[in-house]
Input
Amino acid sequence: MNNQPESGLPKLSQPALRALAGAGITRLAQLTGYGESEIRQLHGIGPRALKTLREALAVKGLSFQEKK
Output
């Protein structure tokens, strides 16, 4: 409803979607290039959004970038 299905992004709040869009993230797979801590720092991404993103990545066999 509040995002395009082909993006692969799960249903998130508008502030969370705006935060991702502001960072140039429009597709779920793009999150694999970011660490969880980087995404957590975006204004609009709270614990619930982070959990939802983590779960959506796991369903696709993906994950956030590991710390280097």
Notes: The two ends are 36 Å apart (CA to CA). Residues 57 and 63 are 5 Å apart (CA to CA). The chain has a mean pLDDT of 91. DSSP finds three helices and no strands in the chain.
